[in-house]
Specification:
Blueprint lengths: L2 H29 L3 H20 L2 H4 L1 H10 L3 H37 L3 H14 L3 H16 L4 H22 L6 H29 L11 H32 L1 H37 L3 H29 L11 H33 L3 H7 L1 H17 L3 H28 L12
Length: about 425
């Protein structure tokens, strides 16, 4: 790994895994409250992660936009683009908070026929939504700093946030006796504190470069157009995850609880692999802004190689811990019995995922959002077709978990990798200049 990539990817890795680490610890703390509570957290966290995931454009559009302007020598313009993104994130977060409160109950009952699980999920969502304004502002601010080639500040903020989140969640779940609601409250408070830290960083940068802090769209019409396409791209990804959880709930509460544990670890690994993708976004956007298309092509080849290596290393680790790791997350023997097969299935596909994520990062960094949005429809349709077959077969126990993961990794992720490889082999995405 070259020095530039390492300087961006290693701090990005720390920042990216900080949030999944406290999701893992939350899952472990909540998991010992029983399968019903763990199932409720699976539904509740899926809803919240879907909302936040759909808004990831705040980061993924801001990063290449800022990086291109920085590469073209316009640092004040780069900072202003990031600040406009932060205002967008804050406003969108407030809007989603207002919408989310009244729709939380019908959303949870739509996911699962188990009334007890739905009740736990509602308790989680009804509190978590209060953290949305802070969380979406954090996404945009992270995009600003990554575009400025600064992944160290997000590392510090995310690490501090993870520590605070774990401490607050433990305090609210156990000593305060709030159960799953305590996990949600600790998360909402932490997200708001992280947003305050990023506001301070942005204000300091704006004053240093004499950039306005006022709300406004400025040159964000281009960003808004890209955001709508990124939203479509992200929507296909989130539909797949929502359908995966919905299908698991139809197969049984134990399967739903096991999926929550497996997905918590998978999200940690995804963010570890995504560190290279984040570095790729920042480097590709910067170099295309500077007009270095040949350098970008060389970067692509190196990044893909490192993605495969990281995925292989993670696969070996997951396979090694698969027989024993379940005990850390749940005391329910029936749920623990479903986990080894799930982890082995995950390990089989992780090297492929490593390549997929870095290719995705390269194309996002290049601003090739239109292709990503349209091409994302085919993997989603492939997944939905196979999951319909799974629900018709109605597998149980370990076979249910195996079929769920074959649907996700085999029918979705493999097809997604194919469409990315086909695009990366062309030169259509290599567009240089201040703006795409």
């Amino acid at each position: 790994m070259d020095r530039r990539m390492g300087a961006l990817a290693i701090p990005a890795l720390g920042a990216l895994i900080a949030e999944p680490v406290f999701v893992l610890t939350d899952t472990a703390m909540v998991g010992h409250l029983g399968a019903t509570v763990l199932g409720g957290m699976s539904v509740g966290s899926t809803v919240m992660q879907t909302v936040i995931g759909l808004c990831i454009f705040l980061s993924y559009v801001t990063t290449p936009l800022v990086a291109r302007r920085l590469g073209a020598g316009d640092k004040p313009g780069a900072i202003r683009a990031g600040i406009e993104g932060m205002w967008t994130g804050l406003g969108l977060g407030v809007l989603l908070l207002v919408i989310g409160l009244p729709v939380a109950a019908p959303l949870t009952t739509a996911f699962t026929p188990d009334a007890a699980v739905a009740e736990q999920a509602f308790r989680y969502i009804a509190i978590c939504v209060w953290g949305l304004p802070g969380m979406l502002l954090v996404l945009a601010a992270t995009g600003l700093l990554r575009g400025l080639q600064d992944t160290r500040t997000p590392l510090l903020v995310a690490t501090a946030g993870a520590v605070v989140n774990v401490a607050l969640n433990w305090l609210f779940i156990y000593p305060a006796g709030m159960g799953i609601a305590g996990s949600a409250l600790g998360t909402a408070i932490t997200q708001t504190l992280m947003a305050a830290a990023y506001i301070r960083v942005a204000v300091r940068a704006a004053h240093e470069h004499r950039v306005s802090l006022s709300p406004g769209v400025g040159n964000r019409w281009q960003a808004l157009a890209a955001s709508s396409l990124m939203l479509l791209r992200t929507l296909t990804l989130r539909i797949v995850l929502v359908v995966l959880v919905w299908a698991a709930a139809r197969l049984g509460t134990l399967e739903l609880a096991a999926l929550q544990v497996t997905m918590s670890l998978y999200n940690l690994l995804v963010n570890a692999m995504d560190a290279l993708a984040i570095a790729a976004q920042a480097m590709i956007g910067h170099d295309l802004g500077a007009g270095d298309s040949l350098g970008v092509r060389r970067q692509l080849n190196r990044i893909v190689g490192w993605g495969a290596v990281v995925g292989l290393v993670l696969a070996v680790l997951v396979a090694a811990i698969s027989p024993v790791v379940g005990a850390a997350f749940t005391s329910d023997e029936a749920v623990r019995g479903l986990l080894p097969a799930s982890f082995i299935m995950m390990a089989c596909f992780l090297p492929m995922c490593g390549v997929l994520f870095v290719l995705d990062g390269v194309l996002i960094g290049a601003g090739d959002i239109r292709y990503l949005a349209i091409a994302g429809l085919w993997p989603m349709l492939s997944f939905c077709a196979l999951i319909a077959l799974v629900l018709w077969i109605q597998p149980t126990a370990a076979m249910a978990m195996i079929w769920l993961w074959i649907s996700y990794f085999g029918a979705f992720m493999c097809v997604r990798l194919l469409v990315l490889v086909l695009r990366a082999r062309t030169n259509s995405w290599l567009v240089t200049g201040h703006d795409r």
